[in-house]
Amino acid sequence: MSRLSSFIAVTLVAAALAPAQAFAIAIYFGTPNNAVYCGMGPDSPHKRSQEYIHCYTPNDGFDVWMSRTGRPTAGYVRAERGQYVQPYKRLAFGQSVSLLPGFKCTSRATGLTCVNARGHGWWLGRFKGYRLF
Fold first, then answer.
1. What is the CA radius of gyration of the chain?
2. 26-63 per-residue burial string, b: 16 or more CB within 10 A, e: under 16
3. Average pLDDT, integer, range 10-22
4. Which of 79, 85, 96, 121 is the Cys-Cys partner for 115 at CB 3.0 to 4.6 Å?
């Protein structure tokens, strides 16, 4: 089974197991201790395109998203609070992952940093805090 096929299968299972009031999020990776989950794709609650990346913190429902070339937008999504899932990939501290061409996320002990092709992005603190740039 290819990586893409595995990702799609995991996404469909996660969507099926999600509570009825929550929307399905195409989760690709999570950070250690389930601090942050990130994904992309047509199931994003914000945009209907795979040109967007989306991350959220399940402890409080803080949500941030951006396009391949745009600036990030952030807010709180009540449906994401308490939404812990099994990600396709666990991004250990010190590891990076590229989500589609133009997006890169790096996990560190202090938090997760994601940037797009224009250098816009965010840092989500492991325990608290965030910064959009």
1. 13
2. bbbbbbeebbbbbbbbebbbebeeebbbbbbbbeebbb
3. 37
4. 121
